[in-house]
Fold each of these.
Amino acid sequence: MKIAIVTGASSGMGRELVLQISQKEKFDEIWVIARRREVLETLQAEVTCKIRPIPLDLGKEESYKEYENYLEQEKPNVTLLANCAGFGKFGRYDQIPLEACLGMIDLNCKALVAITQLTLPYMQRGARILQLDSLSAFQPVPYINVYGASKAFVLSYSRALNRELKTAGIRVMSVNPGWVKTDFFDRATATSSDAVTYYNIMYEAKDVIRTAIHDLYHTRKDVSIHGLPVKLQVLGVKLLPHKLIMNIWMKQQKHN
């Protein structure tokens, strides 16, 4: 069977990806992974291909073994893997509980690597891997320090893995958007309402995903960036000292 697997599919960018990818490519099934089965099941009414809900909490290591057993049992031909699960927390270092900091690392980094590594044996030449990343991957970001660092890991890991898999004919691409209108902010701002208050441009999830799918299927990019302002910002952080970039960020957010 020709299978797509999408983590973090219950909401936000992951859910939008399921909706759009089902129109882009013909799959026998799309396996959707998140914690809440009932929310995953609602996707079936919005797409034409078969949806298979797989309720897993990828923030817990025991879910990796459950996923591995599932793959061994089904032996799918995975032509697309999209790692969209993740979360962030805004706030000063002492406003974000240690448990939340470690949770970001577990989900944003460890789970992404685990799902990628476990799925690769079921992928053949021509398959694609999409890793949902962030603009914050390109620079140190005060008041989003652990989240930004976790996304820097995703960027480095994805680009290096893409090079390793070149001879196998499997593409890996990270998607690095700026601010996107999703429920990400509900969880991110729960630890602090004033750590991050300036959002220069807020994009729609459907537009970011549309660009990502185009880049994944029609270019050789290993990084997808939506929006000219975001592209210019990425260029800026490559050319300017990070100390200066952080000073600008702190001024925008009205921190001394």
Note: The first strand starts at residue 2 and ends at 7.
Amino acid sequence: MTADRSEQLKTLLPPLAMARLQSLRLADGVATLVLDVAGLDGLERDRLEVAVKDVLRGESDVNEVRVAMTADKVSRRIIAVGSGKGGVGKSTVSANLAVALARMGRKVGLVDADIYGPSQARLLANEGQKPVATSEKKLVPVPSPWGVPVLSMAHLAQPGQAIAWRGPMAGNALSQLIDADWGDAELLVVDLPPGTGDVQLTMMQRFKPAGAVIVSTPQDLALMDATRAISLFDQADVPVIGVVENMAGYACPHCGEVSDPFGAGGAQAAAKTMGHAFLGRIPLELSIREDSDAGKPPAAGDGPQAQPFADIARRVATWLDNRAGADRQVSEAGARV
């Protein structure tokens, strides 16, 4: 009779719960369900649990409802995007790299780790939105129109509020952003603040990235600072995926003549000297700045402005795939030994 009653209870469940139900058992007035919640974010899981309990608690022979949730653990890798100094377009590169990877079919989240000067909410058009928290008190990232969920201090602080925190507080904020409920995201692009300070050190110590992308302009001063950023990643044994040269070449909108206000080829030459890959060059274009300010990342389109970001994303994805393949071979060889 109990088995029959368990089958009857299944028919009462909402469609989503039925689709994800692994088992349901009624014993001594306690209904125990196991649900597969793979791919659902924290808010969706909470809603599913509430819906199931609301339905079953209405049955006279059900005194208690226990819900167990299972999901295959997502193997999540972090791509750190860093620079040695501010003003080189690191945040723009981070946003467009994430969008370009998502357009390739990768499941990507974006962390704005620039605690004191967050900009990703503006770049991905979700300013003013606030993240919710799961029952485990984890933040749920804010969706963006471009298929990339985002978390930023801009989503947590009041608009225009200055963040006056000492290093440990900034490090804890970073941990809260990265430890959020990212659902099925397999990659997290982390937009680091400029320089080599507390936030970067927290990232290395608590969340070792799979690799780092370094952004620089071609000018000598930026390259000197980029070299310091690379040195920090080298010391932490974080592989440098490659270097991006931003603001390289300006085409006059009137005559079409190309000039190089910040120089040309410096980042590519520096990458070669340091033995790192050169990922690509992004031109200095007014349309990239205008679209970014309007929350329309160029990488989301199909115009010529999208191509450099798509090329960089493809090289980053290839590096990650090759790295994962090499890691699997090492693991399998170790298992055989």
Note: The chain has two domains: 2-70, 77-329.
Amino acid sequence: MSDYMTLYENCMLCPRQCGVNRLQGELGFCNCGPEMRAAVACLHKGEEPPISGTKGSGTVFFSGCTLQCASCQNCQLSHELLGGTITPRLLSEIFMELERFGAANINLVTATQWIPHILMALQSAKNRGMNLPVVWNSSGYEAEETLELLNNFIDIYLPDLKTISPTFSKSFLGTGDYAKTAQHAIGIMAKSKPLQWEEETLVRGVIVRHLVLPGHIAASKKAIEWIHTAFSNSVIISLMSQYIPFLSETGKQKENINRSLTKKEYAQIEAFIETLDIENGFFQALSTDDTWRPDFKKENPFPSEYAVPVWHYRFGFVAKN
């Protein structure tokens, strides 16, 4: 057994610090056991331009989540654990295949609960010549010790900052410590990964995402202002507008906002951003429907213009030469 796998014996990978023995089948908050699960790997063209490249970011979507927000767009994975069992060896093969098809990077989506398996797979792929930057795409709810473990493997951090309000953290995210934990984690990320570019492609650095929530514009302004005050232009800010009023049947949170963001609300955020003199930032276009919402049961969970599937838990390797 790899030394990494012993981390599951007293699982403290996320800030919930459940301490369960997952190798013996005990389940913590994430409901994940000893076998890694993933749903799909694809060339994703819908990420931020600096990491999408020309052919797409090599995204791997993992099952489970250590946060499980209300109205998660990937609730099939985070709440329902959709996906199939996958070994570190197979994951390494997927990394190599994504590189072969021209991925700009390896993008690990919501993967904290599987860190031991993933580090083994990354080590194997790098030993075999895989030379892509690695993106850690997460909720921002990360433990300091876990980030220390990841740091030698990760080139780009892509965390959310959902809120800086402890009250809102408790009602919407189900944990009152999200805000301070995410703020601390993003500080560690920014210190360890200063921005580095190769032409227009980001190869090292931090992009902080913030999802603007309907009816909570003042809270979004506070979160955005905190990011800019704390890091100036040493991180990239990415504003997201894709909130959808949906709650998984297995959702654990109390609060769910039952409408989408309006043009007027998003315009307020755009105007506020302009007052802060932010040099590094992106706005997601305001969507008028939910056609982009992924269905991970399909070979391609996304509209064809957004993604090219490479591997799927039901169909195996599906990319065509």
Note: Residues 248-254 have pLDDT under 50 and may be disordered.
Amino acid sequence: MGAGFLQANLAILPVEHALDFMRYCQRNAKPCPIVGVSETGDPMLSTLGSDIDVRTDVPAYNIYRDGVLDSSVNDISDLWREDFVTFAIGCSFTFEHALGRAGFKLWHVLENKVVPMYRTNIATRDAGPFGGDLVVTMRAFHPDKVDEARSISRRYPLAHGGPVFAGDPQEIGIADLGTPDWGDAPPDIENTIPVFWACGVTPQNAILRAKLPLTITHKPGHMLLTDVDEQAEIPVI
């Protein structure tokens, strides 16, 4: 969906924690490329579209209380507060369109599944209460196609850019590709190489560790579609 346009992950949190969260994203730009930030208390993301309302325009939201997932909803209008700040963070779904145009067959797209996501043992850089390990997405390719996939995705720095690792998942702390932490389990990847990209669920991991009284994110796999060209190089946040 949204071919040609930048897609984004979402994190909504109180303004008292916004500066620390922005520092966290700046220090970990690979998994957390900020593409938009709202004014305090304003649910509109005017730099990403003419009428984007973050209370209603994301397919599904996760509600976290004290670092624990409380519920998933389709509308957060009744939860909105005047001290909320919204962060839009680039998503790897954006470069998948480019992979598709180059002839790559992505099983989760063809099967209407959610790309598998995994916690790793790769530490991110802390900022205030935010920290934790990197989360990655995985796509498996024939060995002859890995370099091309790497080259294509590097053209999209606002969508995590090139992969962070390719090869044996145990080297980055993933014991079993068949049991992702988020998304759907991949099919048998025999005779392929698993390739891993930094994932915008990483800041959700950081939010869990921070244990804030209330934070709201997109539900993994349910992106905000913006009006920004997918090949934009410099975000207007």
Note: The chain has one domain: 5-229.
